[in-house]
Fold each of these.
Amino acid sequence: MNRKPRGAFALLFALSLAACHKSPPQALGTLEWDRITLPSPVAEKIVRIDVREGQQVAAGAPLLQLELTRTESQLAAARAQAQQSREALAELKAGPRSEQIAQARANLAAAQASARDARAYYARLQPLGRQKLVAASDVDRARAAAGSADGQVRAAQAALDELLHGTRAEQIAQGQAAAAAAEAQAAVQSVTLEKLNVIAPRAGRIDSLPYKLGDQAPVGAALAIMLVGDAPYARVYVPEPMRANVKPGQAAQVFVDGREGAYAGHVRMVRSEPVFTPYYALSGDDAERLSYLAEIVLDKPADLPAGVPVRVEFSSSPAKAGED
C-alpha cells in the first residue's frame, strides 16, 4: 500500500533535481568562413569566366579575365617613356660630343676675328674724329660695335668652357630621378596588366561572382568573393551576463542548425566593445541588454555552408556557494 506514495516521492525528487540543474551558457549567431574579395583593378569588360559559384579552387587557379587591349597599350607607352629617360640619362653621363666642342671653338675664333676688326676700325676713326673729319656719331657707333664684338667673344668663350667642363652632377641626378620614375610607372602598368587575369590567391570556394560575362565593373568593385580557411567559425553575440566568463582560447561546443551533434571549437576573439548600444548609455538591469561579438573557430575542418544559424555553448562557470 506504500508503493504509490514512494513512487510519487521519487518522481518529485527527480523533477526537483532537473529544476536545480542549469543549462550551460549559450550564445546565438551564424556560421561563417573567412572571406576574400578580389576587386577590379580597372574598369574593363569581363571577357572570360573560368569558374562558377560554389566551385572549389586551388591557389593560383584562373578565375576570370578582363579586356587587355587598353592596359597593354598603356604598358607599351610607359616602357617607351622609360627607354627615352634611360637614353637621356646616358647622354647626360656621356657629356658633349667632340663635334660640339669643335663647333664652339670655331665660334670663339670667329668672334675673336670680328672683335679684332671692330677694334681696328674704331682705332682708325678715333684720330679722324678728333680732327673733325668724321662725324662724332660714326665714332660712337664704331666704339659700340667694338664693345659688342668683345662681348660676343666672352659669350663664345663661356660656351666653350661649359662644354669642356661636362655635364653637372645635378643634371645627372635629375636624369636618374626621371628614369627611375618612368621605370616605376612601367612597373605599375605591368602589375595592372597581370591583375587583369584574376587568379585565386588562396585555395577556397567561390562564394559569389557579382558580375557576368560582358559586364564592365567599376574600379574597386568585387569581381569575385571567396570563402577560405581550413575550418569555418561561428560568429555569435554574447549577452552581457556571460561576457565575464567568455575568454579567448576557451573551449566551446557549436551546434549547427540541421546537423546532429556538436562540433568542438574554441573562442578566437571577443570584442571589448558592445554592439549597437553604447555601454555608457545603460545602467543597472538595462546592462543585460548589451551583447558582445565573438568568434568561435571549429577545431577540425568541416564542410558546412556559410550563413547557417548556430548555437554555441561555453564551459560552465564555477558554481557559487549556496547554489542548489
Amino acid sequence: MDLGIKGKWALVGGASKGLGFGCAQSLAREGVNVVIVARGAEALDAAATELRKLGTTILAVAVDITTEQGREAIWSVAGGPGKNFDIVVTNAGGPPPGDFRNWERDDWIKAVDANMLTPIELIKATVDGMAERGFGRIINITSSAVKAPIDILGLSNGARSGLTGFVAGVARTQKLAANNVTINNLLPGAYDTDRLKGTMKGAADKTGQPIEAIAEARKRTIPAQRFGHPQEFGDTCAFLCSAQAGYMTGQNILTDGGAYAGTF
C-alpha cells in the first residue's frame, strides 16, 4: 500500500533507538524526510547513518527536546522545514518507577514537563501550519498504562493521562479535524527495547531470579506470548500518519499483544 506521504517532513523524538527509531525507520521507508531527535549524539548519529540508507533526507539534532532551547534548535536546523512539519511523533522516555510516597514535587514536575507539556508545546508549534496546508499527522507515543495503570509507574500514569485528556479535546476541534489534521496516541505494551530490558533487570536484581526467567514470566502474561518488535510498532505509526488514516483522530491505539483484557 502506498501511504501517500512520500516527500513529506516528519519530526520524531527519542529516535536514536527503540520505538522512536522504529517509527523513523518506517516513515523513511515510505519516502518521508525525517528530523530525528535524541539527547545522546553518538547513538543518534548511528541511527541517522542507518536511516540514510533508505534514501530520504535524515537530519539529526542531538538536543533535549523538553527544553525551549532544544526545540528552537529543531526549528532552526539547516535544511529542515522550520516549524512546517507534516508529521510529528512525540516520544520521551518514561519517568522512573517507584513508590508515590517517595516522590517530591520536583519529581512530578519533571514527569509532567517531559510526558505532557513537551508534546503539547510541539503540537502548539506545528498544528496551525498543518491546518493551513491541509495535511497534518501528530502521533503521541504514550503507554498501555494509560488504559491499565501500573502502581509503580504513577508518575507516568499521571503525566500521560493528562496528555491523553488534552488530546481528546484538541483533536476534535473543527479547525483541525476539518482540515485533515489528526492527532492520535499510540499506547505500547511490552516491546523488546532497552527500557523493557532495564525494567526486567531491576526485577531480576530485586528478586534474585535470572533475567531470562523474568522475561519468560512476562511473556506468559501476554496472549501473543512474545514481546513486540519496534519495527512493527513503527509500521503502525506510519499507517496512522498516512493519507488513508485521515478519518481517525482523537484515538488511543493500544498495541500490546492482547495483554489488556478490557472491552473498551
Amino acid sequence: MEKLSFKVAEFEGPLDLMLFLISKHKLDIYDIQISLLLEQYMAYINRLKENDLEVASEFLEMASRLVYIKTVMLLPKHEEEGQTLKTELQGQLLEYQVCRLAAAKLGEQNQMYSTFVREMEPIPVDRVYKLSHSPAELYNAYQDAIGKGRRRLPPPAQAFSGIVSRRVVSVASRVVFVLKKLYRTGRTAYLSLFEDSQGDRSEMVATFLAVLELVKAKRITISDDGTQVNFERRRKGKEN
C-alpha cells in the first residue's frame, strides 16, 4: 500500500479527508468500496498518532461509523441495512463535494471583485430643510437657542449689586466720629456709638474696630462693666 503523505491542516473535517482519499485512489464516489476507504482512513488516523498529533473527535466518530458500516455489510441478515448506511454516506459526500465546489467559485469571484475600484462620484447637496414642525416645537427650539446664547454672555451688573453697592466705611472715619462724640461730653454709653449705624453692618464693624484702636492707643477707656466709654484727655508737657 502506498504510504500516505499529506498535511493535516488541509482537511477541515472527516468528509474533506474522505473526498481526498477517494480522489487520490480513484474510487467511485457513487459506489464506494467501504473496506478500502476504511483502510486508507485508518492509515491517516494512525499517522496522526505516530506524530503525537491530537485527533479530533469528529474524525474518530467517522472512523467508528465506517467500521460499523463495514461490519453490517458483512452480515448476511443485515446486508440491506448496511447498503442503506452506505447510501447515506455517499449522499453526504456528494453534498459536501458540491458545497466545496460552490465555495471555490465564490472565492474566485471574491478575489475578482476585491480588486475592483470605483471612483468617487460627486453627490449634489440639497440645502433645503424638508421636515415640518409644529409651532410649539419651533418656539421651544427658539427659547433653547436663546438660553444657550445668554449663558455665553457676561453676567449683568445687577448680579453684582449686592456686592458693589454696599457702602465701604473706613476705620479712620469712625475714629474721628468716636473722638468727636466723646470730646463734647467726655463720656458716653458704649451702645450709643452704634446708634447712628442704623443696621449698616460695615459701619458697625468699622466703629468696633475704631474703639479697639483708640483703647490700644490709650485715647479712651471702657468701664469695668463695659457700658461706658471715657475720653482720656492728654496734658501738655507730658506727651512724649
